[in-house]
Amino acid sequence: MGLNLPNNNDSLYYVANGDHGQYAFVYIQDVIDAFVASYIGPGKICEGVLVEDAGYWAQRGMQELSYDTLHSHKAHEYIVPPSLTMFLPRDFVNYVKFTWSDSKGVEHTILPARVTSNPTDIGYDATTDAYSFTGNVLDTDETSDTLTNYSTINTTNASDDYDWSDPLHELNRGQRYGMDPEFSNVNGTFHIDYKTGKVHFSSNLNGMTVVIKYISDGLNNTDHDTNGPAIHKFAEEALMKYIVYNCLAARAATPPHLLAGFKKELFAEKRKAKLRLSNFKLEEFAQILRGKSKQIKH
Amino acid sequence: MAVSIDTVYQRVLAIANKEQRGYITPQEFNLLANQAQLEVFNSYFYKVSGNSRTDADTVPFDEKNTSEGDIKQFLKEKLAPFTTIAAVVGGTTFPANYMVGSIFANGQEANRLDRNTIDNLNKSSRHAAFRSHPYYAASQTNGEDIEVYVAGTQVTANVSCEVITKPTAVEWDYVVVNGKALYNSGGNTTNFALHESEETPLVYMILELAGIVINKPGLAQAAGQKSTNILTEQKQ
Question: Closest chain B residue to A31 measured between Cα atoms?
Answer without folding.
Answer: B130
